[in-house]
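Q: What structure does this chain adopt?
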Amino acid sequence: MQRYFIYLSYDGTAYHGWQVQPNGISVQEEMQKALSTLLRQDIEIVGAGRTDAGVHARVMVAHFDFGQALDVAQLAYKLNRILPKDISVSKVMAVSADMHARFSAVKRTYHYYIHLHKDPFHRFYSCELHYELDFRQMNEAAAYLLECSDFAAFCKVHTDVKTTI
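A:
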């Protein structure tokens, strides 16, 4: 079995998040459907993480296993031809079998955007606020996070994480 990483981006507006959901369409579902069509067998993919409904990803990594060598440039090209317009693949690459999209990740970066005036071009990618921000007070509150080393209070309970430090 050969493992492959897929690097993709998506506008999550139309999706119920990354992970397959019983109540709506997901990005993972669209990717699996496209891969299964092209490779002519059921393919399951594992993502580096999950996103909630309506959340976008500039770079998401996922992996899948396949029983033979693939032309990765052609696979990326063909995926982009059949995937919806709001999902794109930047590359597919063969990796070693011990690589894992989620557990081999060395960092994750999240960006949150705000805007203070109505703007139709930001409505899906930024939170509109109707008041000025107090940056001094925000920085004062954020300083408390620098003193914190255990982030259990910010996490879901009963998850499979090894540590919250």
